[in-house]
Amino acid sequence: MRGNVIIIGAGFGGLSCAIRLASQGVQVTILERQQHVGGKLQQIERDGYHFDRGPSTITMPSTFRSVFDHAGVAMEDYVQLYELEPRTRNIFADGTVVDLSGNRGWMKEQIAAYSPEDAARYDAFMDESAALYAEANRHFLGKLLLSPSDKYNLQMLRSLLRVRPTVKLDKLLRSYFQHPHTLAMFGRYATYVGSSPYQSPSIFAMMGHVEAEVGIYGVKGGTYQLIEGMTRLAREKGVQIITGTEVRQIVVRNGKVAGVDTDQGFREADQVVANGDVLSVNRLLLAPEHRKEMSNARIRKYEPSISGFVTLAGVRRQYDALLHHTVFFPERYEPEFDHIFRDRKMPADPTIYICYSGYSEAGMAPAGASNLFILVNAPYLSDSWNWEQQTERYGAFVLEQLAARGITGLNESDVLIRYTPRDIERDTLAHQGSIYGISSNSVKQTFMRPGNRSKDVQGLWYVGGTTHPGGGTPIVTLSGQLVGEQLASEILR
Ligand SMILES: Cc1cc2nc3c(=O)[nH]c(=O)nc-3n(C[C@H](O)[C@H](O)[C@H](O)COP(=O)(O)OP(=O)(O)OC[C@H]3O[C@@H](n4cnc5c(N)ncnc54)[C@H](O)[C@@H]3O)c2cc1C
């Protein structure tokens, strides 16, 4: 094995980077402060109920497959994905149901039931969505933008103009659709990158194509099996994974990485890859004199993405209304984003998402019972909302809202666990509890995220949601692989 790389963090970004490096003969150690690998994704077993706490909507399966392909193994020997059809059930406040589907005819029928005009524009929207996805794949998602010439060239400029970066997602949707249900259903894609449909660029309309045509996938045995599979592969490739060890400082000598100080002592390294949030890593692990480009003032300028308020409910009931993924929309969608990003308070009338993996697989809950992961979008942490005072009250409110929509009896759950943005920050050191790194609410934060190679410290790299290409499990898995490939080529040169 050549080189000596330390990766800080065993999330999707860190694990995928480690596998790519080790598969090419680079020596890698992962240091993870939590007791278990997985980062924001952890599994919880309680009284016969299985929960995956964290990401549940798995898209772009090829990004996970390529981790295994490049390591020369078959993904199916490590983890199995299955396609969900319908993808997601959307339930609106007036009782309208749209099961988002890969079947275009059925989609148009369902939309036509409340808006024949919107149904007539569905094909045109899906064509634009496919074109946006192709453009993003060609010029943005699949490459590192390390040097100014990678970012500022004619090809990139042309590509950027084609995706019309200054048009907001909601505005693009309004050029096709007019009914609030359709606008909310597709506007929600901005939240897949922790952002607002009214502020983020229209590029995220590509998620229409990604969900309907490429698909949403379940993971056999629960989403955490993706982490288990990647961890097993990493170990087989020789990666040393040490959990329960926190990096306290990145040690810099003469402007170059020398190693890391941990709560268990010093470890030497030629290169360090930080999988933790870029902003937290800089704030907490690098002395100010080593980060002129990422000063505290610069860090404060970034807007974090949304966070999440999670309830895990194990309940001795089953609900006909729920599929694997179900979204309950409020009467009006827009105020939620004012509450979150402007007021930094929990929404007064929230969109509530439920993942019920027991719908697809027996054994995730006792017979006749349900394992529900309930998620409400939350503001990143600030003085405007005090979770210590609000958790019980808001948690009870979410259950009341669900009861009003027919998901009753959650008060009598066998298992009821609440997990707040404060907990997310405490466990993963996510900057202000954000779950997708920085938001994509502006052109700059979408297309010019902090780069994957530190401008301040030679030998320091970043993978994960805050850096390029962006947040969400498939994209951070991509960032890990892109950095792994580049770093391996430099080490083995
Ligand atoms: C409730 C919730 C729901 C979500 N839903 C979805 C979804 O449906 N679909 C989707 O695609 N994405 C979803 N996401 C987002 C997704 O989880 C993240 O984009 C992704 O998991 C981030 O992976 P990562 O590798 O970038 O970082 P992380 O998962 O944050 O991993 C970073 C790791 O680094 C460790 N670390 C940090 N600092 C140190 C240190 N100093 N020393 C040692 N270790 C350190 C942390 O403990 C952590 O384990 C959700 C997230 C949450 C929390």
TrEMBL record:
Gene3D superfamilies documented for this protein: FAD/NAD(P)-binding domain (3.50.50.60)
Reaction(s) the record says it catalyses: all-trans-4,4'-diaponeurosporene + 2 AH2 + 2 O2 = 4,4'-diaponeurosporenal + 2 A + 3 H2O
Database matches in SUPFAM superfamilies: FAD/NAD(P)-binding domain
Keyword Glycosyltransferase: no
Keyword annotations: Carotenoid biosynthesis, Oxidoreductase
Pathway(s) of this molecule: Carotenoid biosynthesis; staphyloxanthin biosynthesis; staphyloxanthin from farnesyl diphosphate: step 3/5
Lineage: superkingdom: Bacteria
Pfam families in the cross-refs: Amino_oxidase (PF01593)
Cofactor(s) for this UniProt protein: FAD
Amine oxidase domain location: 13-482
Family indicated by similarity: Belongs to the carotenoid/retinoid oxidoreductase family. CrtP subfamily.
Protein known as: 4,4'-diaponeurosporene oxygenase
